[in-house]
Amino acid sequence: MNAPLAPQDLALQALLGRYSVGPKHLVEPGPSDAELRLMVQAALRAPDHGELLPFRFKLVRGAARQRMAELFAAAARAAGKDEAGAALDAERALRPPLTVAVLARIDLGHPQVPAHEQWAAVGGALAQFLTAAHLLGYGGKMLSGAKVRNADIAAAFCAPGETLLGWIALGTPAKRASGPSRKAGVDVALQDWQGGQG
Ligand SMILES: Cc1cc2nc3c(=O)[nH]c(=O)nc-3n(C[C@H](O)[C@H](O)[C@H](O)COP(=O)(O)O)c2cc1C
């Protein structure tokens, strides 16, 4: 019999088992308000140089879902899609039990923290948010697409100076996700620095 896993091993096992779960595999319920606050607390534990908080999570709930669907449909038409394509895009706004818009607030003139460090903090926050969702038993996937650059959509979600990164689809996973294995990834991502160039 295997020795029981220590709590820290269980946490690591759960961490290594996080895969994105796409909207078509997400069912009700989505996370509660208390769980969402925990997920944002986890996001706030990401490294953030200068504690600039260069991100915001905006919940799309209630009547706002229909408004987002209308914006998605209009963006699809503006991009030259027919009515069937527009309906499909509108459906993307309505399908997940909960959608969370992710916004970046990058201070391009910050005297100590360059933009790339602020973007790193945004990515860290996103990863922590998704991992916390997974640890709470939910599935989710970060999605963007050309619509994040649609002027009407960007204006609807962003305050001045903000960038719309995309939307996290969240819900209960209808099936166990097992995503890409990335088995070779560690050998690519982990290297010794040889002391020379590059
Ligand atoms: C900012 C951002 C935007 C993304 N946009 C999309 C997208 O529009 N469509 C998509 O299929 N995956 C998108 N992805 C990738 C998925 O969220 C996911 O990371 C990828 O499918 C790998 O799956 P995994 O998280 O299980 O490793 C995006 C990821 C990030 C960080």
TrEMBL record:
The UniProt keyword set, sorted, is: Flavoprotein, FMN, NAD, NADP, Oxidoreductase
The top EC class is oxidoreductase
Q: What is its EC number?
A: 1.-.-.-
Q: Does the keyword Electron transport apply?
A: no
InterPro entries in alphabetical order: NAD(P)H_nitroreductase, Nitroreductase, Nitroreductase-like, YdjA-like
What is the required cofactor set for this protein? FMN
Highest taxon above the source species: Bacteria
Where does this protein hold FMN? 18-20, 45, 49, 142-144
Q: One GO MF term, please?
A: oxidoreductase activity
Q: How is the cofactor bound?
A: Binds 1 FMN per subunit.
Q: What residue stretches are annotated with the Nitroreductase domain?
A: 27-171
* Gene3D superfamilies linked: NADH Oxidase (3.40.109.10)
Q: Which family does it belong to?
A: Belongs to the nitroreductase family.
**What's the protein called, per UniProt?**
Putative NAD(P)H nitroreductase
The major lineage groups are: Bacteria, Pseudomonadati, Pseudomonadota, Betaproteobacteria, Burkholderiales
